[in-house]
Specification:
Blueprint lengths: L2 E8 L9 E6 L4 E8 L4 H18 L2 H10 L2 H28 L7 E2 L1 E8 L2 E7 L3 E6 L2 E4 L6 H7 L5 H5 L20 E6 L5 E5 L1 H4 L9 H4 L4 H14 L6 E8 L12 H10 L8 H9 L2 E5 L4 E3 L7 E7 L2 E5 L2 E6 L4 E2 L13 E4 L3 E7 H10 L1 H46 L1
Antiparallel strand pairs: 1-11, 2-3, 3-4, 3-5, 5-6, 6-9, 7-8, 7-10, 10-11, 12-19, 13-18, 14-17, 14-19, 15-16, 15-18
Helix pairs in contact: 1-3, 2-3, 9-10, 11-12
Length: about 425
């Protein structure tokens, strides 16, 4: 994809030094914002050292990136994600080493929010701290990163509401930062990219002045992204400018057409949201799920599930129609939005029916391996998915019990009628 990018940092109206660093290289497909912290010039050192270490590591990761570009395989995409995560860990060690050698830099650290465009309409986020990544698509702005702050941890545990968190006195206390310790836990996320998507990476010196993220729409939607970015930063400065303010904005070329709308990331997210299994997930969590799936196209008449065979895939129909067959008899026809085979995510039982394409169909596919990877790595998502799964199974058990009771009543009635008939004869 063609990428248009704009970037800028401003010291703000209160501080005398700028502890933010940023990097934006459309050719490399790498974009990042780092917001340093520490006494004297330590914050500047931490953010710059982190940015340079990640940049160099990604420049050296050409083989793993080229392999994914050639194959498009999910296993090779995961290798790219591991390379990005390793680059952030390298940066963490580098910042910690610098702080250990110089007493004036002791305790320094930095936030780090990085996006790497992997290819095949896939992007990868690596994130530590409270800088943020936003995406504008479908006329809405969504936050894709998750703040690593003390207050946000309280919100996730249910100890605070979102409203209470907005004015909390410890709102800027980080729960994670890069370089304070030699190692840090890094959030990574694979996400799908649509043509026309606009992404904003920024430090808290920008988004703190936009308490409602929908306000970012004005700048992110500008046809001239540099002009829009400058408007966002200038407005933050006018509203106080108490911190360094940094933004990197990039927009993916092209636009969604009627021919591609059915398989666009936004459409896939909307379809998943309508499935009971995923109904309780937030937009950010749905992005994580969709990022672990892949799409396949099945021609008319071809089966993709066969009765009696085992499988580990959940299928979601994005476009077209499919038929479910028991033996050679068609039981039902399903249209776009339908899902088939969710039980295969948790067991190895043989498929109970055959499913074939009635017309050319586009399918979203999630394998058991991907399902369990998100269960292991995302406790909040795991809780919601497993709870939804219990609800689905409970509903099916209830329906089965009702069907059995109905059958029992019919049999009882038939037995009574037979007894009356025999008595009369």
């Amino acid at each position: 994809m063609d990428i248009t990018v704009a970037s800028r940092t401003d010291v703000g109206r209160v501080r005398t030094n700028n502890e933010d660093s940023y990097f934006a290289d459309a050719a490399l497909g790498l974009f990042m914002v780092c917001d340093g912290m520490g006494g004297h010039s330590a914050g500047e050192v931490a953010s710059r050292a982190s940015m340079e270490a990640i940049r160099d590591e990604i420049r050296n990761a050409t083989k793993v990136r080229e392999k994914f570009l050639q194959t498009g395989k999910s296993s090779d995409l995961k290798a790219v994600r591991r390379a990005l995560e390793a680059a952030v860990h390298t940066a963490c060690k580098e910042v910690f080493k610098l702080a250990s050698k110089n007493p004036e830099l002791a305790g320094m650290g930095t936030t780090c929010t990085v996006v790497l465009i992997a290819g095949h309409n896939k992007g990868i986020l690596a994130h530590v701290g409270d800088s943020r990544l936003f995406v504008m698509r479908g006329g809405q702005v969504h936050q894709l990163s998750d703040d690593h702050t003390y207050v946000n941890e309280l919100v996730k545990r249910g100890a605070l509401t979102r409203e209470q968190a907005k004015n909390h006195p410890q709102g800027n206390v980080l729960s994670r930062a890069l370089g304070v310790q030699p190692n840090v836990s890094v959030d990574t996320m694979i996400f799908d990219i649509d043509p026309g998507d606009t992404y904003l990476l920024c430090s808290d010196g920008l988004y703190n002045y936009y308490p409602d993220s929908s306000e970012l729409m004005g700048g992110m939607s500008d046809a001239n992204i540099e002009q829009g970015m400058n408007r966002l930063i200038d407005c933050a400065l006018e509203r106080g400018g108490h911190d360094n303010t940094t933004a990197v904005v990039f927009r993916m070329g092209g636009s969604i057409t009627p021919a591609t709308a059915a398989v666009a990331a936004e459409q896939r997210i909307a379809i998943l949201k309508r499935i009971p299994f995923f109904a309780h997930l937030t937009y950010n969590e749905l992005v994580k799920v969709v990022g672990l799936t892949h799409m396949v196209r099945v021609p008319t008449g071809q089966p993709f599930i066969k009765e009696g065979e085992t499988g580990d895939e959940l299928y979601v129909v994005l476009a077209g129609e499919v038929e479910i067959l028991k033996g050679s008899a068609v039981i039902v026809t399903l249209k776009a939005g339908a899902h088939i085979g969710e039980m295969a995510l948790v067991d190895n039982a043989p498929r109970s029916a055959t499913v074939r394409a009635k017309s050319d169909v586009n399918l979203l596919v999630m394998r058991r391996e991907e399902f369990f990877s998100i269960i292991r790595s995302e406790p909040a998502v795991a809780t919601k998915l497993l709870w939804s799964f219990v609800q689905v199974l409970s509903g099916r058990l209830r329906d089965t019990n009702e069907a059995l009771q109905s059958t029992r009543r019919e049999l009882t009635q038939q037995s009574e009628e037979l007894e009356v008939f025999l008595d009369e004869t």
